[in-house]
Amino acid sequence: MMQNRWDRREFLRMGGSTLLLLGGAGAGALEAGDRAKPGVLVVLFQRGAADALHMVVPYRDKRYRGLRGALALEEPGKGESPTLDLGEGFAFHPALAPLYPLYRAGQLGVVVNTGSPDPTRSHFDAQDYMESGTPGKKSTRDGWLARALIELSGRQPSGAEAPSPFNAVALTPQMPRTLAGARDTIALEDFGSLARSRRESALAERLAKLYREDASASFASAGTAASRAVTLFREQNPLALPPRKGVRYPGGRGENPLKQLAQLLKSGLGVRVAFVESSGWDTHFRQGAATGSMANLLGRLSGSLAAFYEDVGPDVPVTVLTVTEFGRTVAANGAGGTDHGHGSAMMVLGAGVRGGRVHGDWLGLEPRNLYEGRDLPVTTDFRDVFTEVAKRALSLEDTSGLFPGYRTKRVGVMADRSL
Fold it and tell me: Where are the domains of the chain?
């Protein structure tokens, strides 16, 4: 039963399903209209382990069609559902057509044979290692994006305004592992609840009183920031911003999270880091080739990303990185799907990307080049890609703290600022 006075337990319980904010920003946070246009990093996690060979098709490899069987896709320019030529013997799945113009324009690049060096095929462990940035180590308490935010905040000059309460947002039902340990972070699956929920209105009105009366210092800081976030959100009303003319987001169950993220960015709420997730990529059964379950997933992903990028427009320098915990087996299984594998592929879209090319070391599909004789190998550590993208997107000068104990190597997916 609701108490007359909201206590800490009630607020924390609500935080799991409505607004969850860690740390806080002081009352001096910049108003949205006063903000400059700094870079924004968006990480989109394809949960379930996406099949790289459906995303980036090595159609010229002589073993490709034999290994893939009924899952094999047509070559570019051939058949009823041709793939889209990326050059160098690779092609996009036809369902990725909405992203193809961005690739051709040099605004999108792909990285093949990338992933974690850890051999696990457990979804839980692999996702944890990728989000923490410490493969094989389960004791890490914070996430790599949280460490990036700490580095970002450490570069603020003395006396600078506090970060926005929307400094980092996750459009997820709970705080993702990758943002664990970060301050000024909001996790909310549907930001529409901040604008329309009576319960949120009551939260905004009563938080200040609650923290004045009875709160520890850390809890009071979180509560102050939560109250500030709700107030600032309603002042700016980002959900009232329609998509740019001609932009159409894919439909389906629930609100498209990238549509809401675009509204947050266009409103100038001060977002620097955003996390979005897409589920359903564990395609053990009836994966399909040019059509089917995987094609549907790719179609929604590509349509959403293309709409988001056009919707945000040139005013916000945004960089999007797609990741997945591991890849799938090269060969199809007996159920018309693929099983848990090793290496996979990433896409990088937006500001500073060296697009229009396939990055990474491709070794081919000969048995001697496959991991354990069945999977794509990992020739580019995910930490190398993450570091390069975060450094450029967030203008980080020192990235040594992002992945403790790991010495990163250049991938070349992001252009050097000096070029």
Answer: 8-393
